[in-house]
Design a protein that fits this description.
The protein has no helices and 5 strands. With 71 residues, it is mainly beta.
Length: 71
């Protein structure tokens, strides 16, 4: 389950939706169209989505490591 957030850009005036899991955590959120940081949060809704595996997994007693996938 993911939290989908309605966002309005105050710079260009466009509306878009972004999933909470896809947001860049630890960085400032910017409009994907004009790159303005002036955003207004509208509504939000919980959405059923397939759970994608996290690219980082914590091993007990170890530092975070990125999984390597062989194709």
């Amino acid at each position: 389950m993911d939290l989908e957030i309605d966002i309005e850009c105050r710079g260009c005036g466009l509306f878009y939706k972004e999933g909470f899991r896809g947001m860049p955590h630890g960085m400032s959120l910017r409009c994907p169209f004009c790159h303005s940081p002036a955003l207004a949060i509208g509504g939000h809704a919980f959405v059923e989505r397939e759970v994608e595996p996290d690219p980082f997994e914590l091993s007990p007693g170890e530092r975070p490591s990125k999984r390597k996938i062989k194709l």
